[in-house]
């Protein structure tokens, strides 16, 4: 079994997810939140790598896992099962909340920054649409297009590099 995971590159500045600046309502980078997201993605990768090892030791099958990263805001959830089925959804909920990722030791970099709100994209609970190449012409077309879309992003993406703790640019 082969698992390929394409994730946003949160090691570089991005505005969404990010901060809604109190003073002018504009979006800005949230380096501390990106650091949290990098750690979360690294944890997912480590967990799948450990599962691969357990499966191998117990002769439960072969699992290959590869993560790649592309610099873009998350917007689409795309799952391909073999060449036959695709599930797709969107990050369709915005969560605006206090920036709990900024520690008390980190002074706001500018006046009023303490009132900035974190803008997060939420995808859990979103509706997934299932497409199958066996569901007629429309299904075949959608599966082919989504797989081509993923392949294009995959080829343009960089390997997920293990990050040293706290390594995030733009901080």
How would you describe this protein?
This protein has 171 residues and is an alpha+beta fold. Helix content is 28%, strand content 29%. It contains 2 helices and 10 strands; from the N terminus they run E-E-E-H-E-E-E-E-E-E-H-E. The protein has a 4-stranded antiparallel sheet, covered by helices on one side. A hairpin with a 6-residue loop joins strand 2 and strand 3. The longest helix has 27 residues, at 31-57. The radius of gyration is 19 Å and the shape is globular. It starts with a strand and ends in a 12-residue tail after the last strand. 15% of the residues are buried. The model has no long low-confidence stretch (mean pLDDT 87).
Helix content: 25-40%
- Element-by-element helix/strand order: EEEHEEEEEEHE
Counting helices, strands and paired strands, the structural category is alpha+beta
- Overall average residue pLDDT: 87
What is the 3D shape? globular
Contiguous low-pLDDT stretches (5 residues minimum) are none
| Measured distance between first and last alpha carbons | 38 Å
The profile of the biggest β sheet is: 4 strands, antiparallel
Secondary structure tally, helices: 2
How many beta strands in the DSSP annotation? 10
- The strands making up the biggest β-sheet line up spatially as 3-2-8-7
Radius of gyration: 19 Å
How much strand content do the residues show? 25-35%
